[in-house]
């Protein structure tokens, strides 16, 4: 079998494991934990990276690069809005 | 079935599970949590569309994925600016 196929399959499986772990982590944090939004943004970084790696594996480098640039800005904007926003939080 | 196709289907299933988690986060009571959930949902759906393009050869899924990846974070940033006030 072609080694490239094996490597691509292994990367996709590793991305699947990362996605499942991040889904489990998001759901395990309850809402009564203080400042849980920052923890969830942090966990979503893992899922973002798993999707970027998978997109690179699927031969979509432009899509992966675009999201690689845009995702930190979005995460920072959410955290900034939560910190300075008008919602009640501790 | 070859190994790559099986891996792609496994990745598709894990993306579906991740989307369920993202929807659960998006339906929390605070707006910021909804933003987090929608941001996760957009990249997961874009990756699913790319996978569908690769597996079934449907061309326009790729275009929708490009639009989703570009406009998802831009919308999140814009709404976060509004939320910040």
From TrEMBL, chain A:
It comes from Methanothermobacter tenebrarum. This is Cation:proton antiporter. It comes from the Archaea. Keywords: Membrane, Transmembrane, Transmembrane helix. The chain crosses the membrane at residues 6-29, 41-59, 65-84.
From TrEMBL, chain B:
It is a multi-pass membrane protein. Keywords: Cell membrane, Membrane, Transmembrane, Transmembrane helix. It comes from the Archaea. InterPro entries: MrpF/PhaF-like (IPR007208). The chain crosses the membrane at residues 6-23, 30-52, 64-83. The keyword Cell membrane applies. It is found in: Cell membrane. Signal peptide: none annotated. This is Cation:proton antiporter. The lineage of its organism: Archaea, Methanobacteriati, Methanobacteriota, Methanomada group, Methanobacteria.
């Amino acid at each position: 079998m072609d080694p490239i196929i094996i490597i691509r399959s292994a990367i996709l499986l590793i991305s699947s494991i990362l996605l499942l772990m991040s889904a489990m982590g998001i759901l395990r944090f309850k809402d009564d934990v203080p400042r849980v939004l920052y923890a969830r943004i942090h966990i979503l970084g893992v899922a973002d990276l798993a999707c970027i790696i998978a997109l690179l594996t699927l031969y979509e480098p432009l899509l992966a690069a675009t999201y690689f640039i845009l995702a930190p800005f979005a995460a920072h904007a959410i955290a900034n809005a939560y910190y300075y926003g008008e919602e009640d939080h501790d | 079935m070859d190994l790559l196709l099986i891996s792609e289907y496994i990745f598709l299933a894990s993306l579906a599970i991740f989307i369920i988690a993202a929807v659960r986060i998006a339906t929390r009571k605070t707006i910021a949590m909804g933003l987090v959930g929608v941001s996760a949902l957009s990249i997961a759906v874009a990756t699913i569309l790319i996978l569908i393009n690769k597996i079934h050869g449907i061309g326009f899924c790729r275009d929708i994925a490009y639009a989703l990846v570009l406009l998802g974070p831009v919308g999140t940033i814009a709404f976060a600016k509004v939320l910040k006030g």
